[in-house]
Write a structure and sequence with these properties.
Blueprint: H1 19-59, H2 65-69, H3 71-77, H4 90-106, H5 109-117, H6 123-135, H7 146-153, H8 160-168, H9 176-181, E1 184-187, E2 190-193, H10 201-232, H11 235-246, H12 253-264, H13 269-276, H14 292-315, H15 321-328, H16 333-361, H17 365-370, H18 378-387, H19 392-416
Helix pairs in contact: 1-19, 3-4, 4-6, 5-6, 10-11, 10-14, 10-16, 14-16, 15-16, 18-19
Length: 425
């Protein structure tokens, strides 16, 4: 039998190893090498992206503070009928005193007050006061019932709503943070909307979506002709102008935002120019800062390069012969652009649009500095609850809703436009 007709099982390498075995060994080695090369990136993504998201998701439903510090009290409250209109029995008050005294010594009782204060104001001061009193309490000198002892500490303990709140927040896991994110709260009568003056989060979500959509539209409107010009010019000239597009990236975001404050304020450059040319009077200066106008203007400028770059990279791949062929067949310049050139740039519009939208929906610094009351976005309140109010559960719930909202819009975009049609060049 000739070598060319030999079966693969009979072929061998110079060292005598069957060729099939050698090929399998080589493939396993390459796969192992590829896995080792990808492993650092995978670990980096796990540590810096997946783990924080999982931690955020868990914090949005975690409610172990009350259960861990007052385990017996919360267990006994489970048998209490909160709709009876009567206070819990003596056993609940005794458990509260014993566990409260331990928590006061360990300085953990304030955590309970802080957690309940998110649901009802005044709880933090109540538990601080109770902790101070119980710290001095000597069980051997008790000359009254535990119920009277607790009720004498503060009149809030006589309020049925205080005990109802404690029982409501006793479970280890809760959806209360998500209710709060939707401007609602759980009561003994079921789910109810919060007071109208305290309904802010749904308004913020709607405002964030509106402003992000408007900013995306404005960047398309401004960035498309710029990208078209850059793609139409000679390479040397377009490269020179591209430096001007990239120039803002060489400056700190904080500096660029501060520059817009100087430009947009009532005594700023823009108002001075409009007054100088007589377009407006000195007493009619425009209010363009600390509102939505200032946020939209400054964020449009900051995010404009993220729209221009994908558009330019896509436009650069469109052969000029397409437009010449359309013109030679009798199409007007506008018709050739509308039917030939523009459809080929839709992929770049989609890439730039989704990039700008996702960046703007989570923007923080610019709305915080120039947004004021009307121009802040949901990301500003997430940062507020993380760094100032320390209500990490509510911040996690707001962040989770924002994440799910972005994923839903991404899926919707994929259904309508198609991610496969999105190109960066």
């Amino acid at each position: 039998m000739s070598e060319t007709n030999a079966s693969p099982e009979l072929l061998k390498t110079p060292d005598g190893t069957p060729l099939k075995v050698a090929l399998s060994r080589t493939l396993r080695y390459r796969k192992r090498t590829a896995l080792l090369l990808v492993a650092p990136l995978f670990l980096f993504v796990m540590i810096t992206f997946l783990f924080p998201i999982f931690d955020m998701l868990s914090r949005s439903v975690e409610n172990k503070t009350l259960h861990e510090i007052f385990p017996e009290t919360t267990a006994l409250l489970g048998n209490w009928d909160e709709t009876s209109g009567k206070l819990p029995d003596e056993a609940v008050f005794k458990a509260l005193v014993i566990e409260g005294q331990i928590a006061a010594e360990d300085q953990t009782i304030n955590k309970v007050g802080k957690r309940l204060n998110y649901e009802k104001s005044g709880m933090s001061s109540l538990f601080r006061k109770t902790g101070r009193q119980l710290k001095r309490f000597d069980p051997a000198k008790l000359d009254t019932s535990y119920t009277e002892l607790v009720l004498d500490i503060d009149k809030k303990w006589k309020d049925i709503e205080t005990w109802q709140l404690i029982k409501l927040q006793s479970p280890e896991y809760t959806a209360a943070y998500y209710y709060a994110a939707f401007d609602a709260q759980m009561t003994t009568n079921g789910l109810a909307r919060v007071d109208e003056n305290n309904r802010i989060y749904m308004t913020l979500f709607v405002r964030t979506l509106f402003m992000s959509t408007l900013i995306t539209f404005l960047t398309i409107l401004l960035g498309y002709p710029i990208a078209f010009l850059l793609a139409s010019l000679k390479t040397r000239t377009s490269n020179l102008l591209m430096i001007l597009v990239l120039l803002p990236f060489w400056t700190s975001l904080l500096v660029r935002t501060s520059a817009w404050i100087a430009l947009l304020q009532k005594e700023g450059v823009i108002n001075d120019f409009l007054v100088g040319i007589g377009l407006i009077g000195d007493d009619s200066r425009l209010q363009m800062i600390h509102n939505q106008t200032g946020t939209i203007i400054s964020m449009t400028h900051i995010l404009l390069p993220f729209m221009i770059l994908p558009l330019f990279s896509v436009m650069k791949t469109i052969p000029p012969s397409y437009m010449r062929a359309a013109r030679s067949m009798g199409a007007t310049p506008f018709t050739a652009f509308r039917r030939i050139y523009f459809p080929n740039t839709v992929a770049g519009i989609g890439a730039g649009g989704i990039l700008v939208f996702i960046l703007s929906i989570g923007f923080y610094i610019t709305p915080a500095l120039v947004g004021g009351t009307d121009g802040t976005m949901i990301s500003n309140f997430i940062a507020y609850h993380i760094s100032q109010s320390l209500n990490w559960g509510l911040a996690a719930a707001l962040g989770t809703i924002l994440l799910l909202l972005v994923l839903a819009l991404y899926i919707l975009y994929d259904k309508i436009v198609g991610i496969d049609n999105m190109k960066f060049g």
